[in-house]
Amino acid sequence: MLLAIAALLPQALAQNCPTINPAQQATFASGYSGRVVMNGLRTPRGIIFDNQGNILTTEQGGYGVRYIQLNDYGGTNVCVKSSKQLIADSSINHGIALTPDGKKLFVSSLTTVWSWDYDGTTGTVSNKKTVVQNMRNGGFHLSRTLLIPRAQPDTLLVQRGSQDNVDTAAAQVNTGRSQIRAFKISQIQNAPVDYLQGEVLAWGLRNTVGVGEHPNGGIWSVDNGVDDMQREGRDIHHTNPCEELNYHGQINTTSDPDRGGHHGYPDCHAVWDPSVIPNAAAQGLQVGTPFLMGSPAGQNTDAVCQARKAPRLCFPAHTAPLDVKFNADGSAAYIPFHGSWNKSPPDGFRLSRVEFNPATGMPVEPATSTTAAVNIMYNANTQQCPNRCFRPVNVAFSPSGKLFMTSDTTNEIWVIGGAT
Prior knowledge:
The protein has one domain: TolB, C-terminal domain (Neuraminidase). It contains three helices and 32 strands. It has helices spanning 2-13, 185-188, 302-306, and strands at 27-28, 33-38, 44-49, 55-59, 64-72, 78-88, 92-98, 104-109, 113-119, 124-133, 146-147, 155-160, 179-184, 193-194, 199-203, 210-213, 218-223, 230-231, 234-235, 243-250, 261-262, 268-270, 290-292, 313-315, 325-326, 332-337, 350-357, 362-363, 373-378, 392-397, 403-407, 412-417. It holds the Pfam family TrAA12. Residues 27-417 form the Pyrroloquinoline quinone-dependent pyranose dehydrogenase beta-propeller domain.
């Protein structure tokens, strides 16, 4: 009997997941690899892990929330053990978050955030509640990203984008648009609240779909810049403005000077390519400098923009970063760039790594850097994008420290090797 068991052990240890051919091939930087864990999804967007190591993903294609159990045989040798619909709701489109104790699940639509009691062992939900409401925009920027910081587990962060490319009304904080607001979970469980009742964690953010927490409790976000930009009558939109990495302070420090800051939108944006901006050198404009869209006049000047919160890092225009997640020691952030529609040739369509100093919780590169985002997974030929490319949306680290990524155009979930 013992000999028979011993003979079976190598077979058990050598189990391999079946290969799933990707819809579009990906190229990986040295030291990185990846494979498709699951395909055939319906426009997967948000992705998180529960405390049992199961994936929860929102599917924008009218499905709701999916619960996925995994078999993990080491490295990227990961595959689906079982999959089922956890929540059926065609209005669910992106945001998903779980309290650190794994017992309360939050999901969003264009207008509403709901909560459920959650059991990760059985993959079941109960006791649905509406917790935040009245977030409708006029058909523009439909995502409502959610984050529950581990450093402040009674806080739910809810992002809301602009109502238009240039949403002039978003210059008023009481519109509730182009903002991140914070809500006390213990309070919103008692009765639903209007979005405007949340604390303003940050505003002047055009469409900050990606929100993440550094291990030190710092809150970071990535913002999608304005389209069709002009400056003093010149079209500069192909390479400006930059996509932004913004900092919003320590979530457990209410007096943090970066908390509640205005980041410039709708009037102010940050430079990516000063070479196409009229008189950029004379006006002191360089990569990362906030500047005014249109033509400065009177009191409406670049100086007004530079008095607001500047991005900590910039990325190429229109590459559309949609998430930012940190590794365990805080030495790197991983950012998926969903890719452009407003740029020729197309740009983005990649997963990148940004180095951080774990001691300070800040990026290693200066705000003027153009090389801070190092591509680790990308489409070799973006000329065929977006239709014949993978398009990364969200990333999440599993409890064991592996990085997973959703791709909405190819309806896949990937696991990324080497991302530590």
